[in-house]
Design brief:
Elements lengths: L6 H14 L4 E5 L7 H18 L2 E5 L3 H7 L3 E4 L5 E5 L1 H6 L4 H7 L8 E5 L6 E5 L4 E5 L4
Length: about 140
Amino acid sequence: YPDQLSGGQQQRVGVARALASDPDILLMDEPFGAVDPIVRAELQVELNRLQRELGKTTVFVTHDIDEAFAIADQVVIFRTGGVIAQVGTPAEILANPADEFVATFIGADRGKRTLHLQHREGDSATLIVDGDGRPAGILGADR
């Protein structure tokens, strides 16, 4: 029964049920909001895979800009009242926020989207660090 499944399993069942009717457009409103970050990341990867394989148009509503940038081909950022602030690919929005509101919304004004490289002495890997000095990834690691 659905209540015997974990949150991630319930979300997967919900997506499968929605896809079973073979809709032209799939509307997903905060579908991964109630799961832990690890399951959320897994579901995002799975959604991207399904999108590539099935080619369905998906309208995905989220308040998590990181999630939007991870799964979307096109992102629409709204101001209060439903007024569109900017439309574009994640790369376009990151490279050229339309105004101060969008820059704040995506975290560009806080250095959140600013990355730089740190080379570590005696290590072939290069650490990617965000504007706050937090690790964001590794380049060139042989793992």
